[in-house]
User: What shape does this take?
Amino acid sequence: MQAVEIARAIISNNYTIDELNNIADAIKFVRSQLTRRNTSAFVKGSRVAFVNTKTGVRFTGKVDKVKQKFVLVDTDVGVRYNVPASMLVAA
Assistant: This one.
């Protein structure tokens, strides 16, 4: 089942509050697992890239520090960003 189909099923069906809470808990769990996997994929000195969600500008740089959910990135333009691990890709 694709994400669009899942969203349509949730919107169109009559789920109880408990069922919706179970769906939300499952989504939160998967997000935390993805974040954990992403943070473990990067080490200090790794080249990474990300897109600033406010400006749409793509930045590349090196990992300075890996935290639990965020990664501190020294960009090539000299600015340091605290980026969610889920937004980073290897450059």
Observations:
- The radius of gyration is 17 Å.
- The helical segments are 3-12, 17-41.
- The beta strands are 47-51, 58-66, 70-75, 80-84, 89-90.
